[in-house]
Each structure stands twice: as structure tokens, then as C-alpha cells.
Amino acid sequence: MFVLQESRDLQVLYESLEKSTPESLKVYGAIFHIKNKNPFNMEVLVDAWPNYQTVITRPQKEEMKDEQDHYTNTYHIFTKAPHKLEEVLSCPHVINWEQVFQIQGCQESLGEAIRKVSASKSVQVDYLKTTLFTIKTPKEFKTSSEDHTELAKLLTIDKVDEDNKKENFPSIFLDASHAGLINEQWLFGKNERSLKYVERCLQSFPGFGIMGPEGQPISWLVMEQSCELRMGYTVPKYRSKGNMLQIGYDFVKYLNERKIPFYVHVATDKEKTQGSLQNFGFEINPCGWHQWKCTPKKYC
Description:
The chain is an alpha+beta fold. The protein has helices at about 5-20, 25-35, 85-90, 110-120, 150-155, 180-185, 190-205, 245-255, 270-280; strands at about 1-5, 40-45, 55-60, 75-80, 100-105, 125-135, 170-175, 205-210, 215-225, 230-235, 265, 280-295. The protein folds into two domains: about 1-130 and about 290-300, Aminopeptidase; about 140-280, Aminopeptidase (3-Layer(aba) Sandwich). The protein has nine helices and twelve strands. The radius of gyration is 20 Å and the shape is globular. Belongs to the glycine N-acyltransferase family. InterPro entries: Acyl_CoA_acyltransferase (IPR016181), Glycine_N-acyltransferase (IPR010313), Glycine_N-acyltransferase_C (IPR013652), Glycine_N-acyltransferase_N (IPR015938).
């Protein structure tokens, strides 16, 4: 594996990976940001060029200073040759197996090689699989303030009734000052390392929220370094009022206008959320969303 650096080559690779979506989405999204200012200081590795079979994106070495920061120490992988991946992952210059890290991808077939190499290196693997959602063209719907009820009926997201009407709170762009609130409610967060990660995402990528009457966001959604929309949450007292619907429309419009790829993953048991996404125009992708958190024995 070697680092692909030329901007022209990265563009060619990006266009090639688009043909392999959704399986290539994690790498495809990361390369989008790498081509555009590269705020997370990531790099792209390929096994050959231009006839590549495996692509890995990872932080540059100077970024992975904290041995236990799996938020920063994240690798995204796409391969056309899963049977050769074990050999790739075994190379010490490809992955640092001495620190805590995570691998993310949209191919379940990555798992066999990850488990084999991790076992040989006495590394514990915690595996998570969720449902992957992508969207081509969101459903057409009105967005004026007087059409909120019609909008909710059309999409059947956050249904509105007379006792639980949508209150027209303003949409906002999130910034680093909101990191603490978002981190407190993020299922994968709630710690100091995740707080730093959330802050960095908010400084580098778009995040949308709804500002409530108390002067704090009551609903939000944030993009991360592989163009995935994550950390979605609505304060319980403001649920079923159309707030996430409003964020979804604003965010999708913003991203589509700028031709920024995006996608989401949802836990398999979150049937209501999955149904809402499908009504909005998102599609389930059978390949799924996969994460392997790898922890060396010394940190277990």
C-alpha cells in the first residue's frame, strides 16, 4: 500500500469509487473531504494505481497521537478483493495495531480479515452492524410555514396533531459552542475524547439544528469526516413536533446544492426512525454499515 497524493489522481479515484457505492461510501465520503481542504488531515492508501483493488483512508501519522482515541484513529476501507485484505491489514505501515482504533466500511466481508489479523496480534474486536440509508432524490414537498401540517402528512415523519403542533423555531448552523450538548446525548460519545471529536466535526463540517425557546438547540444533526450524518437527537419534550423533519429538509437541500455526498446509519431495532427515513426518500442498502473497534490487550 502507498499514499496517493496527486489531486488529479484523487479525483479519478473519487469518480471511480462513485460507481461502487453504496459499498464504497465510507471511503468515497472521506475522499470528498480530503479533496476539499482536508480538515481532518487524512490520507488515501491504495494497493496499486490506477488498477487498484483496495483503498484505505486514515489520519496522517501526526494526527494519531492519542493511543486510545478511537474517534480520531479511524480507518475507512473499501476492497474489491476481500480475500487479499488479510495480507494488506497485516502490514505494519498500513494499520497501527498497537493503539486503539476503529475500522468502518459498508462491506461485511471485511470482517473475516479483520478478525484473523486482530487475533494474531492479541487485539480485541468489538463489532457493530447497523442499517445503511442513502437518498437519491428527496420527495417533493412544500416548505412554507403554513404548510407544516400538509408536509407532515405527506412524509408521515413526526406526525402533527392539534395538541402537539409544530412550533416554528428557527433553524441554525451549529458551531463548536454546541459540542458539549451534542456530546452529552450522543450514544457513541459522553466522554472527553468524543467531546474533542464532536468539536472538531462542528469546526470542520456542516451541522444543522433547531433553536428552542430556552436559547439552546433542541434538535440537531452533524456531518463527520466521511460525509456521514450522525449524532442526530431531539430533546424528549420537543419530539413528534416536526423538528427533525425541518432539519432533514434544510440539510438535504444544503448538501444537494453543494453536491456533497451524504448518508446515515440507524440501529436495526430503531424501526420508527427507519420508517421515517424511508418516507423522506431514503433507501435501505443491503450491504449495511459496519464498524470494528479494535483494542490491544494492554488497553483491555
